[in-house]
Amino acid sequence: MNSNSDFLWYIPNDVKAGHRGDLAVDDHNSLTTLTIQAKALEDSGWKGALIGTGWGRPDTFTVAAALAARTTTFEPLIAIRPGYWRPANFASAAATLDQLTGGRVRVNIVSGLDNLPAYGDSEGSQVDRYARTKEFMRLVRRLWTEENVSYKGEHFEVTESTAAPRIEVRGNRQHPKFYFGGASPAAERVAATEADVQLFWGEPLDGVRERIDRLRVLSQELDRDLPPLQFGLRITTLIRDTEDEAWNDAEAKVAEMAKTKGAGWNDHRQAIAVGQKRLLDLSARGDVLDDNLYTAPGKYGGGGAGTTWLVGSAVTVARSLRKYEELGISHFVLSDTPYLSEIKRQGEQLLPLLRD
Question: What is the pTM of this model?
Fold first, then answer.
């Protein structure tokens, strides 16, 4: 793999135990348990982890700050929503955490539907939500890189605003990266002009290739004035010592999902977004696509990154991930459950192959 590729994990951040087959223990979301996971990520060679968000889950930024304070190299990829945050407030909070951690903050901008009225948001239209997201990302980036910013847009307004502390430039890193997902035309236009990293869920290689090509063309058509858009993959990776063991365990997990109708797995299926529908439609093409992309979980309740899995030995899964990298993927957010034991297993077995 390219030595410049980043490998992150996933921390679910959910008040309910048993997320996607994780161990259902009482203290699953305590600071002690989450810190053990974050430190295991450091010890096992992972760069950091995506921390999930959504109304009804613990506040993502608070969790990220607590874990960053208890670690030394762990980089939280903090999922946030523009309707939940105001740009200047978020720019200041993120700049503060970035300064306190020596530049470890990453940001995942989420625009999909959530329980908007519960936290006072009324922007339910997809077109308006993505227009607001575009403004949010552009304004936060300005607040991080300029001083005395005045702006009046359709959704946000600031006057003579200077976020403090200032973001420290670190090599080629001007500010925390903006990761962004979404497959609708409105989302892709935002990604093409404003995102630093476009995140894909686990589609087959042909689908990812087609989307990368389209986003690169769209970036040129829309006169992107930022460095070239980078690409990432968020996917479940189920690895075992042998191929047979991996597939037996994968099929057993799916059988259990079928019994419970995907309870604990389908947190992205409450409102079917374009990207989620693309994943769910894959099973019509077969239970296994490409070499080892398992689509059956989506038929029995899997949602988001739990809809499709890469299954096999560490060698097989590494080979598949290399094929995504050859398409242009340079950011990988992987996971499997139980989260803690898989952090260690995949850190020991998979990461060395990816860095070879």
Answer: 0.94
